Amino acid sequence: MVEEVVRQPLNAKKLKSVTTILPYPPLSDTQLSLLNELARRYAATRTQAVRTVVPDFPLRFIPSVEKRTVRRKSIKVKNISKLYRYLTKAKGSLVITGREMNPTDKAIADYIVTQANKGQVLCLFPDRYSLEWALHHFSAQQNRRPSIYHAGLSKSTLATTWKKIATGEAQIIFGTRTALFAPFASLCSILAFNASDDSYRSWDMQPHYDARELAMVVAKNKMPNFLFAVLPSFSITAGVPLVRVPATTLPKRVAFDRRALPYTERKKILPEELIKKIAAEDKPVLVFANKRGYAALVCRDCGYLPRCESCDRALVLKSKKTIATLHCERCNVNISTPETCPECTGASFHFVGAGVERIAEAIKNAFPTKTVQILSASNKQNVILASTLENIRRDTVDIIVATAVILPRLWTVPTFDLTIVLGAEGLFLQTDWQASERVLATLEQLSAHTSGELMVDTYGNEDPALKAFLAGTTADFYKQEIKLRKKFNYPPYGTILTLSGTSKELDTLAAVLKKGQLAIIEIILQREVGGAIKMIILKVSKEASLKPLFALLTSAIKVDVNPTTLL
Ligand SMILES: [Zn+2]
Ligand SMILES: [Zn+2]
């Protein structure tokens, strides 16, 4: 067949462009380099990498793609601020820090619209909620609507946008992490907002890539790439130049030390002093706590604490109404509450610890006439979250009790006059190498969104990160921390890998690793259940190539590179 065609005299007019025949346009150079990076950094197999970069749209949605010239509006910017000048001069990646920033800040909005005259501008957001908020406000402010691209859209909508990105018709694109893989016709700048949020990492399927790292790969050829973060993650941004913008709010940072209180006060969920503090406020108050649900249960007689069988975490009551069920937040499983203690057959249990539900209950008791609302990950999926945030904006809530779920959404609500971090010990539950960084990022974000006073309630916690935060010396603490990481080869100076899968696969791998031929600094942990290996955690030097290790992995082994948690 091919021969037949070739033998005939060539008719140039009959030749068709390959792009008119293929169901997809050929991958761009950027997309190809992303494919390779997924394999090189995150151990993606070819299939996984292709599945990540090439969307699974039904083919009929993709008509042939031809590049169009797009007529561009000319925009003049008045009152160019200092930040605007930094943005326009930037080449490659830059971290913009010191305060909260979003696409409607004047300098940033001006930058986006002027850049859009030169090519395509991609604005990345950690989650759909902040994307939609930014979209709404940016559209209203600029009187133009960016194209949106995130995994929650229907396949036909995604396909239409994908095509508009490929033709260059879409000039400003607001997207979540997947948008980075779109076939840009003329991408000229990337802006990642709220870049300390780990939602930039893919967690639901292999490979577990990090869009912030990949944005830097794309920007390598001198494309401006900005990471906006109150406190940037230094595993990711170490070595990237930093621009500090003066903070808009500088609250007083106060330690509330429970050890100074009388014994009965000390044990209260909400001591009198904090109640007085809240009572004196006529503006909305934020009470932040790092614990979901109501509380855990403990046997009154022997101290037995029901724990999850698979992960050993303390089981919690989701709310006081669901007392018959205990819940594991990590494994998302429910078990029925034991009627008697399995250890001592005692029949009375009492509550320990206070989750947001229990805190809200205590606040409602103290302030029966005030409106109290909970913002927690358990109501993340439904409309409650959006409506609660809307209520805060409308100023119809007096006290908000929130978990970390509020952090990436803080910029969508007005600044708080008083923020109380209740039970700050709850921030230190994880003890991995990123623990201090995570605590500081949380506190700095809360601080950036508080104008009057930020109180940190502790039992005299001596943690150096917390002390540095209260003293306002976070930057110095960072310098120390980075030295330690360098000394012990933790990211960004080394790579942490968690490998999980079937014990058969992992046993074989463990045997190879023991021979010590690979450039592995340390096997940190080999988690075993009943003699079978369930997980291997490795530390590899930054200089070593991961290739020989990745070559040993079968697709049955799940890989997480620099995971957010080691649990
Ligand atoms: Zn007991
Ligand atoms: Zn569990």
From TrEMBL:
GO terms for molecular function: 3'-5' DNA helicase activity; ATP binding; DNA binding. The keyword Secreted does not apply. GO terms for biological process: DNA recombination; DNA replication initiation; double-strand break repair. Keywords: ATP-binding, DNA-binding, Nucleotide-binding. It comes from the Bacteria. This is Primosomal protein N. It comes from Candidatus Uhrbacteria bacterium CG10_big_fil_rev_8_21_14_0_10_48_11.
